[in-house]
């Protein structure tokens, strides 16, 4: 893994942009460039040369790594120590970086059990819109007045600052893993998910697609075998390939011309009866929908089940890809943006118009 520190250069670029009043588009691997609204900015801030591990103590199950570090290289380095990132981030391509993975806030199939990206985020080091280097949380400093300003960076899509370093919790690799496949129509699969939600056991992935329910079990071999015998089903040969295809969206479901919607609802919500093709993940908490339905209808559907809807692919400039925020939350978002990026330099308009 390349180890290269260009913090000073990145900081100077932000200072220059601030002095000129010219916004910046943050670029890492660009594997997530399709997420959100297109950023139009006169300057580019490339993080790929700011890479490498800053601090790693395997016995502490924590790591600090520079934002431009390739995600694949980081995953491989952790695997060499029999460890992994708990939130199982999607990569969407070989050029993906850990900074982009944190900024997107997206977690993989283990999300219901291991938590979100923000739950693994111990701290961050960033450049704010004034060109100042700030550190929050984790191994670096106690947050001022008790406010945790590292967690909002997960899912901010680079709109609040440039991530120089992220400190993350880790977990040991499971000693054994088995994926079972059972034929179940959707209603039966959702009922199974409801029961499994109440008694998860060794589950680390539950997904349904095309009439097949996939159950991933991880843990010690004896426990896995006992639970597999209890649940039943055929063992999937290329289980890792299947879960990667869901996580990185290379599964055939994700191809096609219809807009791809991501609905996040309460786990085990039952059948929400969405229009279009459906893939169910997160033990029912995440629904991928291929549909031409109008955005308002899909957002109302998600909200009625305690969740939100994002147009993941196929977004237009007319409608914001992200679920509209309530006025109070939007006010908090604007205040945080104003505090960290008063001139609106970073990724303007990426999430919402005017931000």
Write the layout of secondary structure elements.
Layout: H1 7-20, E1 24-27, E2 43-46, E3 53-57, E4 62-66, H2 71-79, E5 83-84, H3 98-104, H4 111-114, H5 117-120, E6 121-127, E7 133-137, E8 162-169, E9 171-172, E10 176-183, H6 186-198, E11 203-209, E12 212-219, H7 221-231, E13 234-235, H8 239-247, E14 260-264, E15 277-281, E16 286-290, H9 295-304, E17 308-313, H10 327-340
Parallel strand pairs: 1-2
Antiparallel strand pairs: 3-4, 4-8, 5-9, 6-7, 6-8, 10-12, 10-13, 11-12, 14-16, 14-17, 15-16
Quick rundown:
The protein is an alpha+beta fold. The chain folds into 2 domains: 7-172 and 330-340, Uridine Diphospho-n-acetylenolpyruvylglucosamine Reductase, domain 3 (2-Layer Sandwich), CATH 3.30.465; 176-313.
Characteristics of this structure?
alpha+beta, Uridine Diphospho-n-acetylenolpyruvylglucosamine Reductase, domain 3, five-stranded antiparallel beta sheet, four-stranded antiparallel beta sheet, 10 helices, 17 strands
**Radius of gyration from the CA trace?**
21 Å
Structural class by SSE content: alpha+beta
| SSE series | HEEEEHEHHHEEEEEHEEHEHEEEHEH
The general outline is: globular
Helix content: 25-40%
Strand line-up in the sheet with most strands: 3-4-8-6-7
Q: What percent strand?
A: 15-25%
Mean pLDDT level: 93
Q: Report how far apart the termini are.
A: 35 Å
Tally of helical segments: 10
- Give the second-level CATH assignment, the architecture of the largest domain: 2-Layer Sandwich
